[in-house]
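Complex 208.
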Amino acid sequence: MDIKKIFDNNQKWIVKKLGINQNYFKNLSEGQNPEILYIGCSDSRVSAEELMGLEPGEVFVHRNIANMVPNTDLNVMSVINYAVTHLKVKHVVVCGHYNCGGVKAAMQSEDLGLLNPWLRNIRDVYRLHKSELDAISCEDNKYNKLVELNVQEQCVNILKTAAIQKAFKEREITVHGWVWDIQSGKLIDLKIDFDKILKDIMEIYHLS
Ligand code: CO
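Predicted structure with cobalt (II) ion bound:
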């Protein structure tokens, strides 16, 4: 790819945006008020704004390998804290995707060096749901299921944070678990029953 093309694209984009609204960038510069925090995978095929049909300013985005929310990762924890406590987003989304290389790597016995501790979080998800996953004989279906269960467990990690627990008490805020089907382009709501999950675990994770 010719990097120069990116700057040409940028110039065309500016002209297009100003053609629709002369104050487009002036308005953007005045501040952000997004209603959604989106946590997704860094995979180049999985966009954030584009697949949701949203514009700059509408979604606060965090992406990492396999859309993880590790409890000690200062990066994702800072993003959640800022989005929930300061931007006061109304929705927090964890969006996984089928054919996720990170999830695939965690299903294999291979030393991946620096990636090992990161992917171990996904191995932990497998261990938590081992009986359900081992009962699936088709490898592809098992892989898809792990993608979904990983989304669910990362949502649970969000529910463990003080920021979300405090926000739940003070206002309307919803956590969503989604999967993007890379083969059809379709965004799927996993409709995770957090009430049921929380009933089982909140006794342990309640912070106040
Ligand atoms: Co991925």
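The chain has a mean pLDDT of 96.
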